[in-house]
Fold this protein.
Amino acid sequence: MAQAPKEQTTSTVPYLVQALHGQVGTHVPFWLMRQAGRYLPEYRELRKKAGSFMNLCFTPEHAVTVTLQPLERYDMDAAILFSDILVVPYALGQTLDFVEGEGPRLGALSTPEDLDHLNFDDFEKKLDPVYQTVTGVKERLPAHKALIGFAGAPWTVACYMVQGRGDGEFTAARAFAANQPDVFESLIDKITEATALYLLRQIACGADAVQLFDSWAGLLPEPMFEKWVIGPTARLVSRIRGQYPDIPIIGFPRGAGAMYPRYAAATGVNGLGLDTQVSLSWALRECSRDVCLQGNLDPVHLLAGGQAMETEVLRILEQAKGRPFIFNLGHGVIKETPPEHVAQLAAILRAFKV
Ligand code: 1CP
């Protein structure tokens, strides 16, 4: 009697996680920074209903819905938790408000006494709705899709905590770090501890990978980059690995330029998020094959769509061929992006054979 053919087993390890562990699969996994957000009409509608951005983040039912919205439309390989990097300072007791049309405002820190007010008393309680969101998304996500948890890296979070707002320059924060390095170090240590707790809980609740957003890493000259970007990130990576040796960690030191390969090697991240400016072919040459590169389409190309976008996407895919790679943007989706362009991007990516 002929033997029945063996049932094909599909791995339940999400494709994105496989890439972060160095595997080259049959398709290139993709997700987009800010994939849930204002370019989607269904996001804008729920945002209006929630009343405020904070309310959207801290109402698990809404945050789960928003996290999954892009995956209802497109075949992305990962959902990214809907939250914000500034919930960590908020949970440490700093005041936080998102001003309509302007952005975040925090009660800026300027003296050592201001730092003393930061505390862990209500930390986990304040973040509990975020953990509930992680659990809720994980329950609804198919096994082959990854849930990415995230936090801001300590340097970038400190920039907002000292400056009190996002102005792109963060002069007060940089001057604070330069003039009072010991006080600044104690701030960085506090944020690092908080971020470790926050990410470990996200992982415990079901995050399959985590990304550290260091959006303002590029503001620092080399010795400070070493001290405030690489140092705390390396400590976070080893802290997380101590508890979860196999959880993939993606670092996104935006603007790191020539420091990218050193950042990857010295922090030990599994994945390296490339910004728009950095050359992919250069990064492929200079970074170890052990690190999975992620990036780096200019969000403006997604805004523009059409043939120009297709050419760029194919260039990126051809260059990364044969290496573990995650397709993404070099920064977040621009809010004016037509949703159809994301559909066009998804179709190009799925048609590409590795
Ligand atoms: O009005 C609105 O609806 C709020 C806009 C918005 C959104 C959609 C903010 C305010 N935050 C978010 C969500 C968010 N933020 C996510 C969700 C997941 C996803 O990507 O889909 C993530 C990962 C972030 C991370 C984040 N927040 C970063 C790092 C990435 C980056 O953009 O460089 C930073 C710097 C922030 C701070 C922040 N939060 C919001 C704004 C407008 C800003 C930027 C402030 C500034 O510097 O101008």
Observations:
- The two ends are 39 Å apart (CA to CA).
- The chain has one domain: 6-351.
